[in-house]
Specification:
16 helices; globular; 6-stranded mixed β-sheet; alpha/beta; Protein-Tyrosine Phosphatase, Chain A; 22% strand; UDP-N-acetylmuramoyl-L-alanine:D-glutamate ligase; 3 domains
Length: 468
């Protein structure tokens, strides 16, 4: 039997962005969905409320009449209590990655992978296809694509499907016991693969940068015959093997198939520049700042060109694209202070956000609030974090946000980061505020009209905006 032959699904860790998107796909397919997770509120809460899904504790027994279980790497993965119960009852158990593959491989798939940009590029491709009446199926790992009011949709009649392709492990706990790494995107067989940048980002499952390159190269071998690989110029320079018939690149180099140019003068909340394809330059004005978002747009334009959408039409469609939740998201203005939020949690992603702030908000006092995500990443990339964060105009940190899939590694803390950053740049104001509540107090007491605060990190730092 295939996944869609079952009717009543239970999703373990349903509040995660990928799992909430899976819940949406299943509901669209006419399935009954329940799930379990921790009590804390996630960025997916609005989506889950709209779907009216019954939620359970992770320690609750499985409800009656469930005939299929889907799990993620969080909360123990295959060894989680409810997953083990399902196995004992001989119920079918799918990882989220395998379940997504069941949907994706029914379509002409556009898979978006890489470190930094994959959510935004996926959302941009989806947006262009929607606005040009292609009405794709899609699954994007965000709380919401602003303006579409959902992050996933399953349309049985659609020809194309857009999905984020995540390189993380299906079951990271198995790797610790010497078993082979199975990347989440290994279940996808795309017609078009888009790859942003390739960086060492998961030290808990990858050995090093070389291992990371190997895993991406193996994924590029899964492109269907006659398919296309679209790569950021930095990823293309790695020379990784692939099975694509056509390789296209994007970036600022003149040899790229889509060349991005940033206009000298940028306005607040916008990125203004050009994208040149086949010697034809198109003006671009996005409602989100940053040259890296112009590069994301170039990737999306190349991808939708493979579907048959002219670059001018694709770029015109993006004029009203308002990003997604937690991707340079404008949260609001209070007492003249601008508040933004971004998911950036890798040094390279943080560097891109800092550059965008400098490009578009040079006239403002900018305060960066960063919450490191996972002890393993903070420890492994410590020096990169120090060098990157030391470039912030003003900086405050919160304590490290531990993933549900790791134990506390007390040998590395945000205090260590603060000390090292101060040693690297003695002129920078930097401190560890420890908690979200302290950050809210800090904002209310120290920010004034014409200041800007941006929160960065893959944890729960975004919740400070609701408090403020």
């Amino acid at each position: 039997m295939s996944l869609l032959d079952y009717h009543s699904f239970f999703l373990v860790g349903i509040k995660g962005v990928a799992m909430t998107s899976m819940a949406q796909l299943l509901v669209d397919a006419g399935k009954s969905v329940q799930g379990s997770d921790v009590k804390a509120e996630f960025v997916t809460q609005r989506q889950l409320d709209r779907l009216d899904i019954e939620l359970h504790k992770l320690t609750d027994p499985l409800p009656a009449k469930i005939d299929c279980i889907i799990y993620t790497a969080a909360h123990g993965g295959e060894t989680q209590f409810q997953v083990e119960e399902a196995k004992s009852k001989n119920l079918p158990v799918y990882s989220h990655a395998a379940a997504l593959g069941e949907f994706f491989n029914q379509k002409q798939g556009i898979a978006v992978c890489g470190v930094g940009g994959k959510s935004t590029i996926s959302a941009m491709i989806t947006w262009i296809l929607e606005k040009n009446h292609f009405h794709p199926s899609y699954a994007v790992g965000v709380g919401e694509i602003i303006g579409l009011s959902r992050a996933a949709q399953w349309r049985p009649e659609s020809r194309w499907m857009v999905a984020e392709a995540d390189e993380y492990a299906v079951n990271p706990s198995q790797i610790k016991h010497g078993q082979k790494l199975i990347p989440r995107f290994s279940y996808l067989k795309p017609q078009v693969t888009v790859c942003s940048q390739i960086m060492f980002d998961h030290p808990d499952v990858y050995h090093d940068e070389k291992h990371t390159h190997q895993i991406f190269s193996e994924f590029f071998q899964q492109i269907k015959p006659g398919g296309t690989l679209i790569m950021h110029q930095s990823a293309a320079m790695l020379g990784l093997d692939h099975s694509a018939e056509k390789l296209l690149t994007y970036g600022s180099l003149p040899t790229c198939q889509a060349v991005v140019g940033l206009n000298e003068h940028q306005s607040h909340r916008q990125a203004v520049g050009t994208i040149t394809i086949n010697n034809q330059s198109y003006p671009v004005s996005l409602t989100i700042p940053g040259k890296y978002n112009l590069e994301n747009a170039a990737a999306a334009v190349l991808a939708t060109l493979q579907v048959g959408i002219d670059p001018a039409r694709a770029i015109a469609s993006l004029a009203n694209f308002r990003s997604t939740t937690r991707r340079f998201e404008f949260k609001g203005e209070k007492n003249g202070v601008l508040f933004y939020d971004d998911y950036a949690h890798h040094p390279m992603e943080i560097a891109a956000v800092l550059a965008a702030l400098k490009e578009s908000f040079a006239d403002k006092r900018v305060v960066v609030a960063f919450q490191p995500h996972t002890f393993s990443r903070t420890k492994e990339l410590f020096n990169q974090f120090v060098i990157t964060l030391a470039r912030a105009p003003e900086l405050v940190l919160l304590d490290i946000f531990a993933s549900a899939r790791e134990n506390n590694h007390g040998e590395i803390t945000s205090d260590h980061l603060v000390k090292a950053i101060q040693q690297h740049n003695s002129q920078l104001q930097v401190s560890n505020l420890h908690s979200i509540s302290n950050l809210a107090t800090y904002c209310q007491s120290t920010l004034s009209a014409d200041d800007l605060l941006i929160t960065l990190g893959a944890g729960d730092i975004y919740q400070v905006h609701d408090i403020i």
